[in-house]
């Protein structure tokens, strides 16, 4: 990874205000999730706008220009429109005319899936523009039912990006493991607006264009998958949890993730948690936490960094990075 960057919209919404609007005690959300506040996009601000802002910061930290990019992969569940890809919108906003661009739809695991696509592409390239941009972005605020505490308490808006390119051995992104279980596709979804339930007066009246989540099923999935991803990554690499310099999970519920990390044998200082003031920002959640950790802590050459994503679909993915020298 050559550079990371994040962008959170400037408008902030505090958890205590949402709790009061839901008729709950002011501390109800934060005490259960650890989320204090989240960002909300301004009217007219689309996913591509947030993504481009994060991408510019990642490029700046990588010391590269948009013209150095050969590929843009963008993960999102809240695109600008159903087509074309939001990645193409970002390419135009950046002026990255040499870059191929496409979206991946893997919900909150979108960044890890995007990494796999980018790493595969890089392995085939020879010559010019050997850099790829992987972006995660969500504008969930446009798809929330304010009266649904299962979703309005958790989700926020934001974007994060990473520039990846060649790295000398033994540094770089290790093998990427992906998985999915489509029998749980109904656990988290936006039911209307696609070919199964096209937009119609009935879907609008029934709030079919807002996120619906089976909170109990999702919690059960997270409780099982996150510790498993940590254990499998360590076993495959022949290391112990204590050998990991940083573990960067998806951030659906910071309090739950921190508890599960302890069960997996991780110390608090090994864990990257950035969801307290961002909420669940889906495909942007993991790269935002990575970017925040890189800027706040710094990483040294040889540090082992585990990325562990999981989300709707259900989907999951992980990779172990040997951080390059700066």
In short:
With 326 residues, the chain is an alpha/beta fold. Helix content is 33%, strand content 23%.
Walkthrough of the structure:
- Strand 4, helix 4 and strand 5 form a beta-alpha-beta unit.
- About 50% of the residues are buried.
- It is built from 10 helices and 13 strands.
- The protein is of the alpha/beta class and about 325 residues long.
- The strands form 4 sheets. A 5-stranded mixed beta sheet has the order 1-7-6-4-5, sandwiched between helices.
- The chain is globular and about 55 Å long.
- The model has no long low-confidence stretch (mean pLDDT about 95).
- It folds into 2 domains: about 160 residues, 3-Layer(aba) Sandwich (Peroxisomal Thiolase, Chain A, domain 1), CATH 3.40.47; about 150 residues, 3-Layer(aba) Sandwich (Peroxisomal Thiolase, Chain A, domain 1), CATH 3.40.47.
- Pfam families: ACP_syn_III (PF08545), ACP_syn_III_C (PF08541).
- One of its GO terms (biological process) is secondary metabolite biosynthetic process.
Oligomer: single chain
> What percent of residues are in strands?
15-25%
Give the C-level CATH assignment of the largest domain: Alpha Beta
Give the averaged pLDDT, no decimals: 96
GO molecular function: 3-oxoacyl-[acyl-carrier-protein] synthase activity; beta-ketoacyl-acyl-carrier-protein synthase III activity
InterPro entries: ACP_syn_III_C, ACP_syn_III_N, Thiolase-like
Keywords: Acyltransferase, Transferase
Organism: Actinomadura litoris
């Amino acid at each position: 990874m050559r550079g990371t960057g994040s962008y959170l919209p400037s408008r902030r919404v505090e958890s205590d205000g949402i709790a009061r609007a839901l008729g709950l005690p002011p501390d109800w959300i934060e005490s259960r999730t650890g989320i204090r506040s989240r960002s909300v996009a301004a009217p007219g601000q689309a996913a591509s706008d947030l993504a481009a802002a994060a991408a510019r910061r990642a490029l700046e930290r990588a010391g590269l220009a948009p013209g150095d990019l050969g590929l843009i992969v963008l993960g999102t569940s809240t695109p600008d429109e159903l087509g074309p890809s939001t990645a193409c919108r970002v390419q135009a906003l950046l002026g990255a005319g040499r870059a191929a661009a496409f979206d991946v739809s893997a919900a909150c695991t979108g960044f890890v899936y995007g990494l796999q696509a980018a790493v595969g592409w890089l392995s085939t390239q020879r010559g010019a523009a050997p850099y790829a941009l992987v972006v995660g972005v969500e504008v969930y605020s446009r798809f929330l039912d304010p009266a649904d505490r299962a979703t309005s308490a958790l989700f926020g808006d934001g974007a994060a990006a990473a520039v990846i390119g060649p790295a000398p051995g033994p540094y770089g992104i290790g093998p990427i493991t992906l998985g999915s279980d489509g029998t749980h596709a109904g656990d988290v979804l936006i039911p209307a607006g696609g070919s199964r339930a096209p937009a119609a007066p009935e879907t609008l009246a029934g709030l079919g264009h807002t996120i619906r989540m089976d909170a109990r099923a999702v919690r059960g999935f997270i409780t099982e998958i996150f510790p498993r991803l940590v254990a499998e990554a360590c076993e495959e690499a022949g290391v112990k949890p204590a050998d990991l310099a940083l573990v960067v999970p998806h951030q659906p519920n910071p309090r739950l993730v921190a508890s599960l990390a302890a069960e997996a044998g991780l110390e608090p200082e090994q864990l990257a948690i950035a969801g307290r003031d961002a909420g669940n920002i889906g495909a942007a959640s993991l790269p935002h936490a990575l970017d925040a950790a890189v800027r706040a802590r710094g990483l040294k050459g040889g540090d082992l960094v585990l990325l562990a994503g999981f989300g709707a679909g259900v989907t999951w993915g992980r990779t172990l990075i040997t951080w390059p020298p700066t």
